[in-house]
Automatic annotation (TrEMBL):
The keyword RNA-binding does not apply. It holds the Pfam family M20_dimer. Residues 216-374 form the Peptidase M20 dimerisation domain. It comes from Pendulispora brunnea. This is M20 family metallopeptidase. Keywords: Hydrolase, Metal-binding, Protease.
Amino acid sequence: MSMLNVEHARDSAERIWEDEIVPQLTEYIRIPNKSPSFDPAWNEHGHMERAVALIERWCRAQPIPGLRVEVLRLPNRTPLIFMEIPASADQSQGKAEGIEDTVLLYGHLDKQPEFTGWREGLGPWTPVREGDRLYGRGGADDGYSSFAALTALRLLSEQKVPHARCVVVIEASEESGSHDLPAYIETLGNRIGQPSLVICLDSGCGNYEQLWSTTSLRGYIGGTLTVRVLTEGVHSGSASGIVPSTFRIARQLLSRIEDEKTGRVLLDALYTEIPQARRAQAEAVANVLGDEVWTQFPWAEGAHAVTNDRAEALLAHTWAPALSVTGAAGLPPLENAGNVLRPVTQLKLSMRIPPRVDPTSALRALRSELERDPPYGAQVRLEAESGASGWSAPETAPWLTHAMDEASLAFFGKPSLAMGEGGTIPFMAMLGEKFPKAQFVITGVLGPQSNAHGPNEFLHLPTAKKVSCAVASILAAHATR
């Protein structure tokens, strides 16, 4: 075990979270600082600046020796909080060497939009604490990250436990694909240095009983599919049977890219070979989670999963492409749906792609299949969004495997587990390419029912506290590896 005193760290984290962080997170949840993709006028509305100011204020007040907090604002981009913490005295062996041995900690403060379906008494901008859960948009994804990162460093400082130089990056465009982040990383290049360890606090956990690390992330492509056959709507009694339905054409087009009976994506360009190590991880996680692989979701009565093979379900979730239709336009609400043959149907398509699949090539294949030879000569167009690459972690160094297990046993009482995630964190692919020699700890608090992006999102507070302690333990182990 590292030199970190477990009981002292646990008690201190409990006090810091309850007395200082929970009140701040409560106020943070109230701020509708939606990511730029969902609030193009974010700068005029000022919500992002309020969130930045709240987090900046708390961070600046932390009793961490040498802590420097800076808010960077590049033109026409969302702000970024950048923090530097020098290596502890016994870890600094000259300026150049100290900069080379750096740990980079990452999180974000922008949020997903409101979504519908919040249960009575809850809402996206209404913080509510019920026992161990703090409900509200952005608490778990990813408002907690700034607080957890500095709490970990504060625990080390309190116990005078050595640590390497650390930098903390908190961005504000992650939910929009991190489109502003590359410019900041380029600007900060010399100040970041060459991290030997990257800790990302924006991922999930299979349960709340142990420390989880993410070993792969899927990428993303998508956009808006538009199908048009008329210049304006006409009476369905006059035109149906002569004029084809744009909805029916859209159904045909979707069948080109997805088997509607199984959900299997039909484009070979969107697949890659699954490494044997990832298959073994899926088997191990399936054995631990059991039916929670699927029971974690809020099923309607009678509905069930695509497969009853737990490991295959996990692999489909992490290493296979999957299509979701996440929005539609051209369809009036039910109360206004008259007998009209609509001129246009638009569908928002979200396609998750496996790690190691190039998003540019994947998008090219998707667009080609949807736009070729349109039925009835309809106008068909896929207006693409910027894609994002997936990521697969390099082989974990023995010291880090040992450190994560020790941290999990110390603060959760069980060994750590690793698995892939079905979501996308664009920052990870960027860092994996930029820092190929770095080790990675991708972890987080998004466990069963936490429901990031959907209704009733909550932060599981005991897990947030334990993750803070676990990160401190890993930083201590990194310093003495």
